[in-house]
Structures are given as structure tokens and as C-alpha cells.
């Protein structure tokens, strides 16, 4: 599935390069941080200088990963991030495939003359790198990065620290192997990672069972007061404004996974979550079955992602964003139903 010529090129280039910066997408999740830090740990073992630069902060429940304390966060230290990117001989982009996904960090990246590599599993990649490894069938970027490492002959450099990072991303992007995991390769990779002596139970504890009291209260609030159904579209949506987030002492990552809850309702196949952030509305979409939330998001909310998990944003206020969502989902759903009936 991964073109062997591309891998040969990657191998040849990396052997000559010492100074590498790894960049994940804005608001990095388990897969973005897992693939960044996993790859960093492997490259360091190979004797390279490898630095992770994130466009924005990452959730506390990922801060235990080896190398997390050394990450440069662009939003918090622009100069340091820009200088580090200038020095690099190679930039590796993980878990995104359009420069829009790294927001303002894209200026420094576009100005860099370093070799650019992309490793990603989102569909419809843009030509953002010299070496493009795009496999939308992969469960996660962590799975893909691990496969690339194996195919390049670098498996011996995957120690338990790196394996823990890769395991985390596979777990978070597949909902602990519930979705995106129908490919047996994913299980083989998980088995390989377990053989690296990782502490699997500890990882689940740290990632899934380390909620703050405030996050649990916020979850109770959003499900109790802020969830609405659109039965005709088999859809549901949730929303939170800035004031509510402040009231519940919001920390990055606190709303992770909220969008999945409505899909637990019988007969609901589409879910949306809207959250006010930095003067915009961040949108998250999920679906079950073949309803393409990535196309819906691209069309209406300047976003994208996977068929069943996508995101986007809105410059309208919350009320207008919800009105837009309601009217657009009605149209899109009608078309989707008609297309299916014609098949
Ligand atoms: P989430 O809802 O967890 O933020 O994102 C779900 C999926 O959609 C992820 O695969 C993520 O990379 C993608 N995604 C989230 N926000 C955006 C966005 O603004 N633009 C695009 N193209 N993809 C997004
Ligand atoms: Mn991912």
C-alpha cells in the first residue's frame, strides 16, 4: 500500500539528515501527539536531532508521553518555534494533509527550504510535501508511522517509549479498537507494540481515566442541558459557549470525545458538537455508517477529515452557526437519501 520507491527516497534522505522538526495539527489529539513523539523517540535513537513543534497546546492526559515536556508550542513561544523550524534540514508533518490545519504556523513552514515529508491518513491530501505518504485506509497516523518505520528497516529503534506513543494514537483514533479497526494489520501492529514491553493498562488509565472533576461536571452539563435531536435527519447536536467553558474551568482536551455520546442514542447516526474558541466556533462531526461528515464539513464549515469523523470551523456566532447547521444538514441529508435510493 505504501509505494516502495517513496520509502526508498525517505530512507536515503533521512540517512543524510541530522536536524528534524516534526509537526502535528492544531489542537493535537492522541494520534497527532502519539505519532509526533513516537517518531521523535525513534529518530533520537537513530542519533538524529528531533524536535516536536505543535501549533497549539495539547491535552494534559497526553503529557506523560516521553518527550512531551520538550515540545515547543508555537502559540506560547512563536520565536522559539520559528527559529527551530529555520534551523531544521527536514520537516515531517504528521496527522494532517493541508497547511490550513496548522493555522499560523504555516507561514514559517512555507518559508522553510528544508525537505518536507508528510505521513498522514486523512483522505484528499494537498501537495504539501516533497515526500508524501498518504494512506487513508490506515486506522491512525500512529499505525502508518509504525509501518513506515518497519519498512524502512528502523524497527530496532522502536523502544518501549516510542511504542507507548504509537499505541496511544491507535487506541484514541480507533475508540480502543472499536472503529477504523476492521483491518487485521491494526491488530498485528498492536501485538508488535505489546511485545515492546509497554504498560498497556497504565496507558488506558492515564488517557481514559484521568478526567478532572470539572470535565466530568461539564460532560454532565452538556448531555443534560445542551443536547438536541433532529430526528428527521437521525442527527443530534451539542454546544458550549465561552462562558460555560469558563464556568467549568475548561482545560485543553476537556471536551475530547463529547461529540461521540449522541451516537450512543438509538436511531442517531449523525452527531455534531459546537464550541466557542478563540472568537470562532470549532465544529466536530461524527457519523455511523456511510454518511460522509467530511464532505458535509468541507462544504459548509471550511473543514474536512474522515467519512465518520471530521471537523471544521465557523466565523458566525453560535446561534447563527446552529441555524446554519440545521438548515444545511436538512439539505445534505435529503440529497444523501436520494443518492442512496438511486444506487
Ligand atoms: P475532531 O472533531 O476530533 O477535532 O476532529 C475529527 C477529525 O477531523 C480529525 O481527523 C481531524 O484531523 C479532522 N479535523 C478536525 N478539525 C478539522 C478542520 O478544521 N479541518 C479539517 N480539514 N479537518 C479537521
Ligand atoms: Mn489521526
UniProtKB/TrEMBL annotation:
TM region positions: none
Coiled coil segments of this chain: none
A matching Pfam family: DHH
Stored Gene3D superfamilies: 3.10.310.30, inorganic pyrophosphatase (n-terminal core)
Highest taxon in the source lineage: Bacteria
Signal peptide residues on this chain, from the entry's feature table: none
UniProt cross-references to InterPro entries, sorted A to Z: DDH_dom (IPR001667), DHH_sf (IPR038763), DHHA1_dom (IPR003156), Oligoribo/pAp-PDE_c-di-AMP_PDE (IPR051319)
Domain DHHA1 per the UniProt entry, residue ranges: 248-334
Domain DDH: 19-170
One annotated GO molecular function: nucleic acid binding
Protein's name in the database: Bifunctional oligoribonuclease/PAP phosphatase NrnA
Lineage of the species this protein comes from: Bacteria, Pseudomonadati, Bacteroidota, Bacteroidia, Marinilabiliales
Amino acid at each position: 500500500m505504501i509505494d516502495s520507491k517513496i520509502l526508498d527516497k525517505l530512507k536515503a534522505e533521512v540517512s543524510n539528515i541530522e536536524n528534524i522538526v516534526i509537526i502535528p495539527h492544531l489542537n493535537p489529539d492522541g494520534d497527532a501527539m502519539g505519532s509526533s513523539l513516537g517518531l521523535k523517540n525513534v529518530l533520537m535513537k537513530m542519533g538524529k536531532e528531533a524536535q516536536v513543534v505543535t501549533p497549539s497546546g495539547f491535552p494534559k492526559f497526553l503529557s506523560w508521553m516521553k518527550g512531551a515536556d520538550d515540545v515547543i508550542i508555537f502559540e506560547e513561544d512563536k520565536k522559539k518555534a520559528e527559529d527551530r523550524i529555520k534551523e531544521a534540514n527536514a520537516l515531517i508533518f504528521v496527522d494532517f494533509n493541508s497547511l490550513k490545519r496548522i493555522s499560523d504556523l504555516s507561514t514559517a513552514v512555507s518559508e522553510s527550504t528544508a525537505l518536507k515529508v508528510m505521513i498522514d491518513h486523512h483522505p484528499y491530501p494537498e501537495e504539501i510535501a516533497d515526500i508524501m505518504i498518504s494512506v487513508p485506509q490506515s486506522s491512525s497516523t500512529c499505525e502508518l508511522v509504525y509501518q513506515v518505520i518497519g519498512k524502512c528497516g528502523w524497527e530496532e529503534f522502536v523502544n518501549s517509549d516510542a511504542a507507548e506513543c504509537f499505541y496511544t494514537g491507535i487506541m484514541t483514533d480507533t475508540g480502543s479498537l472499536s472503529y477504523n479497526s476492521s483491518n487485521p494489520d491494526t491488530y498485528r501492529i498492536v501485538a508488535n507494540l505489546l511485545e515492546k514491553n509497554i504498560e498497556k493498562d497504565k496507558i488506558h488509565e492515564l488517557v481514559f481515566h484521568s478526567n478532572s472533576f470539572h470535565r466530568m461536571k461539564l460532560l454532565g452539563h452538556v448531555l443534560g442541558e445542551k443536547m438536541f435531536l433532529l430526528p428527521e435527519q437521525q442527527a443530534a447536536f451539542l454546544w458550549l459557549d465561552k462562558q460555560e467553558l469558563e464556568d467549568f474551568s475548561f482545560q485543553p482536551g476537556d471536551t475530547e470525545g463529547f461529540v461521540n455520546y449522541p451516537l450512543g442514542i438509538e436511531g442517531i447516526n449523525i452527531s455534531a458538537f459546537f464550541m466557542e474558541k478563540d472568537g470562532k466556533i470549532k465544529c466536530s462531526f461524527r457519523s455511523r455508517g456511510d454518511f460522509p461528515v467530511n464532505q458535509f464539513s468541507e462544504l459548509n464549515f471550511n473543514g474536512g477529515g474522515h467519512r465518520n469523523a471530521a471537523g471544521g470551523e465557523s466565523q458566525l456566532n453560535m446561534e447563527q452557526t446552529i441555524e446554519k447547521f440545521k438548515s444545511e444538514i436538512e439539505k445534505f441529508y435529503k440529497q444523501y437519501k436520494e443518492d442512496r435510493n438511486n444506487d
